[in-house]
Amino acid sequence: MKVVAVVVSIVTAVGAVAPRQAAAQVEGWRTAGPLPIGTAAYPVPAGAFFVSPQGNDAANGSQSAPWRTVGRAVKAAPAGAVIVLRGGVYHESVEVYGKRLTLQAYPREAVWFDGTEPVSGWVRDGSIWRRDGWTVRFDNTDPTAGGGPAWHMVGSENPVANWPDQVFVDGRQQRQVAGRDQVVAGTFAVDYNRGTLYLGSDPTGRDVRATTLAEALYLNMAHGSAVLGIGFRRYATPIKRVGAVKGFGNDLRFENDVFADTALAGLSIKGDRIVVRHNSFLRNGQLGLHGHRTQGAVVTGNLMEGNNWERFEQAPVSGGMKITTSSGLQLIGNRSQRNRGPGLWLDESVSDAVIARNLAWENTGHGIHFEISARGLLVGNFAADNGRNGLYVNESSDVRMWNNTALRNGESQINIIDGAREQADPNMPWNVSGVEVRNNVLQGGGTGPLISVQDLTGRRTAAQMATLDYNVYIRMGQSRESLIKWIDRSRGGGTYTSLKGIQAQIEGHGREVPAENAQSGLSAGAALPSDVAGWLGTQAGARNVAGAPY
Length: 550
Description:
- There is one protein chain.
- By secondary structure, the chain is mainly beta.
- It folds into three domains: 3-33 and 278-536; 49-114, no CATH class; 116-211, Golgi alpha-mannosidase II (Immunoglobulin-like).
- It has five helices and 48 strands.
- The strands form five sheets. It has a 13-stranded parallel sheet, sandwiched between helices. It has a 13-stranded parallel sheet with strand order 3-6-18-21-24-27-30-33-36-39-42-45-48.
- The longest helix is centred in the first third of the chain and has 11 residues, at 3-13.
């Protein structure tokens, strides 16, 4: 069943809420993801240079005499040039240094960077197969190993998660194990000392490929460059190299690209005003999208699915996306689903971020995670069936949560929590305060209350941390589950199974409704501030129904 149908069925189960269409300029998750590789049709400008798998690097790079490799084109083309890639597979690792270039697929032709090569010469070795003389080596050290148990990227679930080697049989990724004695069908192992590759599935008559390159493309201070309509797959990226594709520069644009089946992160960004629009991040080893020290980035309309395939530890890094130490971010209309870890994660001094109209669905971690940061607006998001909390605000201040819908997440639907970590950045108060929770729709099913607000250190009361109003609490059947956990340790705390008696102090206009009458409960909410209204595609001051548009 398509995800849209699943989400609509979830909403229908709690009331037949009529879909609301946002203004045309407001992007939503229903259209997330790129055009399929081979269908984009970017115009080819006069003066463009050309590359083709059938070309020749001794040619002049014209359409009639294209170069053979992207590396040759990048070196030969002048700054500001457009390089058009004809359809086919490019087994390359390319760096663009200090030069503005546009790399784009030829109209309606499928272009892939691929880090693998075919492997033949297999011999039977007992119940498995062996390929001798294997000399490919990748850095498989764990730079986090000395950081203490809480910061290890590699844990017991997959102790070789950081080994970047990859093998594919008929396009299907095989899982790496630590040695020959663990190899069974669907797995492989590499013995660097013996120079041997072991495979558990019969390679006879099948397409067996192994990764021989670590990195696909590095835009290194290539300010203003763009990558349009290109696929990147199967690169063995070590932890120290961050991502198979790196965009480290200002004013970069990645659009209608695919980043798939890499050993670490598909794409890593660092710089100002980077646009990541309508891309897919699929089955990457640790993360789909990674970002650090990126100011004013716009991440919109992307699909992030099946990432952390290698089963790295969920903390400190995993899932669909994680961006740290950045400001002015806009995460709009993305669909992050079925990742091992959080769906969307902002952490470590992120400020002034807008997280709007995203879907976080069936991730094993939190749906949307905002941590050790400040001044965030979470508006119109849909978080459903995630393994942990739907919306999680951890040690962050001045976070505004408006018109979100959180359903059936594994713990709480909204969890606002303070801890004991020291304040490292004087401009980023880590103590939770100034959190607004308005017009949200919450349905339970998890192990925690629908909303939880508490300071684990006991320094602050819930009232000092957050305010709640106009939220809708949907109760399933005769359940007496906890609606609100509102901790004041000086008075012994408090967990409430009903809004009765607490509305004056905690949730003045909140509504508690049974699932069968949920439609009637989603009546007019708090008047929308202008910025919230803008992200919802409506007018300031409107009293829209609660929850996210979908």
